[in-house]
Amino acid sequence: MSTFKKSVTAFAVAAALGVAAPAFAGNDDGSLKGLIVDSKEMAVAGATITVKDKKTGFQRSVVADADGSYRFLNLPVGSYEVTVSKAGYETQVLPDINVRIGGSSINIPMNAEGVEKIEVTGRMISMIDTTSSEAALNIGAVELARLPIARDATSVALLAPGTTKGDSRFGNLASFGGASVAENAYFVNGLNVSNFRNGLGGSTIPFEFYKEFQVKTGGYSAEFGRSTGGVINAVTKSGSNDWEYGANLYYTPDALREYNGNVLRRNGEYLIFNDEDKYSKLDANIYLSGPIIEDTLFFYVLYNPRDITNEYVSGTSTFYKDSTDDAFWGGKIDWQITDDHKLEFTGFSDKRTTTSQTYAYDIDTGAKDYQGDSLSKRGGKNLSLKYTGYITDDFVLSALWGKNEADLTDQSPFDETCPLIIRWDPARANLGCWTNSVPEAGKDTREAFRIDGEYALGDHQLRFGFDSETNTSVAGSFYSGHVYYGYYIYDAGDSIDAIGWESDTDGTDVARVRVYESGGEFETLSNALYIEDTWTISDTLTATLGLRSESFENKNAQGETFIKVDNQIAPRLGLSWDVNGDGDSKVFVNYGRYHLPIAANTNIRMAGAELFTADWYILEGLNADDTPQLGEYLGGVQYSDGTVPDVREVLDTSIKPMYQDEFILGYQTMLNDDWSLSVKFTHRDLKSVIDDITIDKAIRKNGWDDHGHNVYVLTNPNTDITTYYDTDSDGVLEQVTISAADLGYPDPKRKWLSWDFMLEKQWDDLWSASITYTWAHSYGNAEGYVKSDNGQDDAGLTTDWDFPYLMDGANGNLPNDRRHTIKAYGSYALTENLLLGANLLIQSGRPLNGFGEGLPEGYGDGFDEYAYGQTYYVGDAFLPRGSFGRTPWTTQLDLSLQYRTTFGDADVTLQADVFNVFDAQNAVRFDEDAESGGANEDFMLPVGFQTPRQVMFSANIRF
């Protein structure tokens, strides 16, 4: 039996105030467990424990086992009254116990009748869950309301140790444990809302719709998969017996916002021009909740109108004015059919359209010449229905069906008639009337089903389940005007390797004419089975033993299986030891394997109907509409002919899954009643990568016919592959096996090592604090799904592995390597009604590289040099990744001041948030292209900066 010496009353106070609680395994539900003991800390068997949500009337009862233990499975997240009774003992009532995502644990004392009561003093309560080996941060609306953080899920995730902000070119996303920003999973009320096309983010939801977050940074249970980064798991608000309604308003004015300065080239010309920047955001929420049938049927609805405008100059010659004014709507219905059966329905729409007005811009005069509008459509409807059945006190079964949509359409009125025209030499300039370079009509739809069970059997708590997803992507894209004209100047000796042409005079004008048409409907099937046992080995030792099996099947545009990977076995093993047996400290260890599915982007790019050709001409001049007057034909290449490729010739049939192994070792202890200290070591090793490679080297080495273009195959780089190729140009594909040595690629590598040190003080009605220092090292030659080096979001098909020599020099410190990070946040009650919040981030910079357009001088491996843009590591010999230093350290302090009062029957909160108080604007990104048609004069100039200071005012009224 575990020793009990903590104050139950204190725990109730802490739980009611929303202190971050322990986290067990679980999706969108909670649990409550512990021991019933008497004044001598002996087990009280047979006691009846009842939990009741006073707001909804939901209640359940269990009876304590022979050892005094009790356990409630699958409780809705919320605040409960806990009552413990047994003949011969005084009834114990705990009025406010907060159950979080995952769960909470509390030991409850009982006083025998006629015996002196247990004296309860102070706020002595340990918030350490000595049974969990998971690394997670639980934080709810109460805690977040006290902090100055941006109102989005990524900002919540960045509070957790081991997370860092990713490259801004991918949007506002977080990297977990060195993984790319495209390897995270996002759940809302149990429904997966992740972007399955390229992994970048998920559904966009207003902060006010959320009730609680669980940020899983490692060691997560077998219930969760499809992620080698982290998991952001959220629960939305819901209704109760109390009628509640209100509104809030958030305003970020342009007048109180600072902007980044201009950047000059070394010759004094503008590289980046920010003088025209303007940004404002007005965001409102109106909500209503209450009972449809008291104690039975409840609803919560929220409507979120918003108005966002953003003005800026791209480059130095194009001005954009973006505006978005679509409203979010969302709601939840909870039906407690009986105490043993309930249904939950969640529906919301984050559909939004950004209108971009495009102007030709004269940087000298500020004159703007309107060119046209383009539309960018994102988001869509999300629906889920979940059933939970309490079959017995020890067995709970749940089933969820869900569907979500994501629009990915970019279009304008000029897409059909205005060709894409870019003059690349002597300086880049957009010509013609086009506004979208590559218009796209895209839509992703996920239909998900899962069934989960939980069964308590003595010292074992078993969880098991099955989940299935059918993901459908519709894609159609082409160059604006269905043709792309690129204008270049070639001097004597310059060559176009793709067609074997070399210029014999200086200043030769050349036009490259490209045609690109791609589209189709693509389906991806994903299934998983899992089982997990949380085994209480002894009073002080708990093991978590899990196993997950996943399968992925990606289909081409004709509905044929393009790639299928079955039975990806992922063990999850954890052990937690209550060191002193008093709940004050624990040592925990965790090992897990995590698989990543193949992004739908891979189907679209490699298994669709794609027409892609390039032809080169001497440029005689330009017509009035900037289209070319074509002269002598120099040659051309057909990369794809518009038909769906035979799946056999673009796939390694022996391909293995992409997975990562993780090991965690940690220690956590209470220093006193309020302060806790923890230290955690994490090691992650990406064991396998899936990407496309060229097999050109092997084709030449084996003497097979060269078809005049690069041959790409999806595989695990640096493994033997089995694929199909027409070796003698007779039109018949033959199965061929190619050794890794013939292909010439290095071993993929991505490793992450980190030490997290965390000091936390719980909220005590006066102040709270969390301070974390993380030392971390991310190194290797593969960032993962996307490539921060060049902002490439082509998930699973980055340029990294396209040719063997592109990987020479690629080994080193990876883009998400931030060696030192300090995070500190907390709040302080200045008066009863006035609250100060603070959030501080201090972080070292990321590595800088130098990329060139060609092979280093003297490179003698027998390869021809391909014109492949700035993708080579530069120098007379390869200068490896990270050879050009690091970006500067960044420091950002955010502050908030909150005033609470009442006005009649209304609770009113007024708040001001100042983000980046000291307006720090250090560079976070530099131009890493050392060559661009020769030496790049802009090499290592800053091109991205910290977000400057901005102020947000908010007002909240609640009835």
Automatic annotation (TrEMBL):
The keyword Membrane applies. Residues 1-25 form the signal peptide. Residues 321-552, 564-830 form the TonB-dependent transporter Oar-like beta-barrel domain. SUPFAM superfamilies: Porins, Starch-binding domain-like. It comes from the Bacteria. It is a multi-pass membrane protein. It is found in: Cell outer membrane. This is Carboxypeptidase regulatory-like domain-containing protein.
